[in-house]
Amino acid sequence: MVIFLWGLRNYREYFVDVLASFITGARFARHELNELVLPVVEADSIVASNDPATKALEAAHTMAFRHGLGASIFASQHPSFTVEDIKAFAASAFSSGNIAVLGTGIDQVKLSKLVEKSLGKIPSSSSATTSSTKYYGGETRVESSSPLQTVFIGFGTAGAPSNNLATLASHISPEPHVKWSKGISPVSEATPTGTTVQTVYLPYSDATLLGVLIQGENAADVKTAAQAAVKVLKSQVSETDAKKAIAKAKFRAASEADSRDGVVSLLGNKVFSGTDASVETALSSFDAVSSSSISSVSLLCGFA
């Protein structure tokens, strides 16, 4: 679990104390589960089951990883877990060996002192054991009542996320650089009007899912856009396109660092792996990416 400290400079000690009090003294009341949490869980599950994009990504995870990351992030509309189950999970997860604290705009020594003062008494326990993620892949079809024709084409990789994957995602992304324009990506140029193509790049601690999500009301137009996306994935990346993609990927990473979730995504796995967890190091590592290393990703994943 990664805790991100983002608050007003004069109230950092207060925020750390609040986080510590929740971790060490959360009550997990039964009425909160039944009256506040479960209705939200049910509502989220209903919305997800009726959204074709969400269903496509859920199916992609299941086919790619099967277990672990392949499990749905949405609980069933009538979950069977109890307050006692939640308390047991919290007791094993909220331990000193499973918590990392990230902070921005604060000296590391000061942050360490605050964490030691407020979180130093958290009991330690053995780290949660999970099996390494494996990539399987496959193809599936899911029925949907939505009028939108939806297709996800992509691949997954096992192991830590790489800058090559992030740069490839930027290369195939049809997102325009200028507002209201169609974009200059080969994918966007071949996409029929009324059809949308969205790049999906989901890095996890020991795996990555990368691909394109295509939606449109006309099946033929969706097929045309899908063929264009696959063609780009199979093509060798030129030096010029590689430089553009690297700059775009680096800009995207820098933009994500301005938000709480972005920092956790960018640096979270680096904390637990023991590597340098700084935004500057994360951005400078893109300098090692090249056109050949980007193209090799598609080759390894069976597209080239």
Name its key features.
mainly alpha, 304 residues, 2 domains, 12 helices, Cytochrome Bc1 Complex, Chain A, domain 1, two-stranded parallel ribbon, three-stranded antiparallel beta sheet
Can you characterise this structure?
With 304 residues, the chain is mainly alpha-helical. It has 2 domains: 2-119, Cytochrome Bc1 Complex, Chain A, domain 1 (2-Layer Sandwich), CATH 3.30.830; 149-300, Cytochrome Bc1 Complex, Chain A, domain 1 (2-Layer Sandwich). The chain is built from 12 helices and 5 strands. The chain has helices spanning 12-25, 30-49, 52-65, 83-93, 108-119, 163-172, 186-190, 219-234, 239-256, 260-273, 279-284, 291-300; strands at residues 2-5, 100-103, 149-158, 196-203, 207-216. It has a 3-stranded antiparallel beta sheet with strand order 3-5-4, sandwiched between helices. The longest helix has 20 residues, at 30-49. The model has no long low-confidence stretch (mean pLDDT 83).
